[in-house]
Specification:
A six-stranded mixed sheet has the order 8-7-6-9-5-10, with helices on one face. Strands 2-1-3-11-4 form a five-stranded mixed sheet. The chain has 325 residues and is α/β, with parallel strands linked by helices. It has two domains: 4-81 and 221-319, D-Maltodextrin-Binding Protein, domain 2 (3-Layer(aba) Sandwich), CATH 3.40.190.10; 85-216, D-Maltodextrin-Binding Protein, domain 2 (3-Layer(aba) Sandwich), CATH 3.40.190.10. The chain is built from twelve helices and eleven strands.
Length: 325
């Protein structure tokens, strides 16, 4: 039988490269792979369902599932995981020396519904007691004109959100004193350029994030992999095939970390970094399955409700197809 042609989109990670170069091939599938940055994939998938399967914002997917308006199913492939304490920036003269001081402040963020923003708002609420209703939110482009929301917001009345003017950016407003803090998606140019008008709320963010993980078990998941509902309905075997292929590709990337011949120049630094990672997370720190990622999945499902983005908490069993042990 001829292999099924599928258009699949994801970014160029070490854990997807074996799929890109053909070392790993999903069984029964002829993959036509498009390599794009996530910020390019998400709107094309969310608005037009352009690809048969694709990398996807976890929060956007959870929100759509909670609203019962989701055209996708997901497999438990966690392509992107990253802590977000280091993404909280403040204006040094805004009177913010600890997280509780964020209460009542004007805070900018690029996307209220982005996974990064959801996790930051969630940790501020659940770890430090500052509710989203106690902050004035300003949404717009971090250093370029504002993007449109990935999913319609339809926020409750007690969430105060404004869209910034088209000719302004969040970084510019922070520098001008129009914002007190910024929940950034990436390191602001203002910070990289050494401006005195911006500082991290957690200068010791590595220690804070390590403590956060030990207390909560949450390693925040940013992106997963979704399959169009119509593809899954017609070819239900595709989910297991893709899950196996993504898992094999990830295993190749992880195993390469221990290749002392390939990594001779960076080996001392890498071994120290890996040992630190093992001590904190264990050896299977980039696992693809529901069980080991349950704390992060349950957290994001609760956070989108807390933040007025979803009407109900979605269970992890509802989020992912049963393709993994």
């Amino acid at each position: 039988m001829q292999d099924l042609d599928l258009n699949i989109a994801f970014w160029d990670y070490d854990r997807t490269r074996p799929l890109m170069d053909g070392r790993v091939r999903p069984e029964g599938i002829n993959p036509n792979i498009t390599v794009l940055r996530p910020r390019e994939i998400f709107p094309r998938m969310l608005q037009d369902q352009e690809f048969h399967a694709a990398e996807m914002s976890l929060a956007s997917y959870v929100i759509l599932k909670a609203r019962n308006r989701c055209p996708f199913v997901a497999i438990p492939v966690m392509l992107s995981k990253i802590f977000r304490h280091d993404c909280i920036y403040v204006r040094p003269d805004a009177g913010i020396s600890e997280p509780a001081d964020l209460r009542g402040k004007r805070i900018g963020l690029p996307q209220y519904s982005s996974t990064a923003g959801v996790f930051i708002k969630g940790l501020v609420q659940h770890d430090y007691g500052v509710s989203p209703t106690e902050i004035s939110w300003f949404m717009g482009g971090q250093d370029t004109p504002a993007p449109t929301p990935l999913v319609p917001l339809d926020l409750p009345a007690d969430i105060h959100l404004e869209f910034i003017p088209e000719d302004k950016t969040l970084e510019g407003m922070l520098a001008d004193g129009d914002l007190d803090a910024l929940f950034a998606t990436y390191i602001p140019n203002l910070f990289l350029n050494g401006s005195p008008k911006i500082a991290r709320l957690f200068p010791n963010f590595k220690e804070v994030e390590r403590d956060y993980y030990r207390r909560t078990g949450i390693f925040p998941i940013m992106h997963t992999v979704v399959i169009r509902e119509d593809v899954h309905r017609e070819h239900p075997w595709v989910a297991a095939s893709l899950y196996d292929a993504f898992s094999q590709a990830k295993d190749l990337a992880v195993n390469r970390l221990y290749d002392t011949d390939a990594l001779a120049l960076t080996l001392p630094f890498l071994i120290d970094h890996l040992e630190e990672t093992w001590r904190t997370f264990g050896s299977d720190y980039w696992s693809y399955n529901v069980g080991s990622n349950r704390p992060a999945l349950e957290a994001v499902a609760q956070y989108v409700v807390d933040q007025g983005l979803a009407p109900r908490v979605v269970s992890t069993e509802e989020l992912f197809l049963a393709v993994a042990p």
